[in-house]
Amino acid sequence: MTSPTATQSFQQCQACARSTPHALRFTKNGCDIWQCRQCGLGHTHVAAFDPKAYYTEDYFCGGHADGYSDYRAAEPVLRREFARSVDFIRRYRDGGKLRSWDAPMASF
Ligand SMILES: [Zn+2]
What is the pTM of this model? Predict the structure, then answer.
């Protein structure tokens, strides 16, 4: 658990599957971004985040400054990027399941 002003704390890390030391790296759009000091994985606390209100059609069609200009048109680029990510992961883990939290088109 964190206090409102903490910049270091122990938190549960999904990758390490245990509580590890974390550092507050930055805040973006009101979300604190914490990084596990053991494995480097970053995360935020999303209890107040409403993805249905944030990821609207506008988010994928140029209506948000931090969204996509045209998500469907970017599909070939995103597929190549994902393939490179999978190749990288396979260097360290040959098998198992891969879960993606960033797949609004579910195209892979
Ligand atoms: Zn970790």
Answer: 0.54
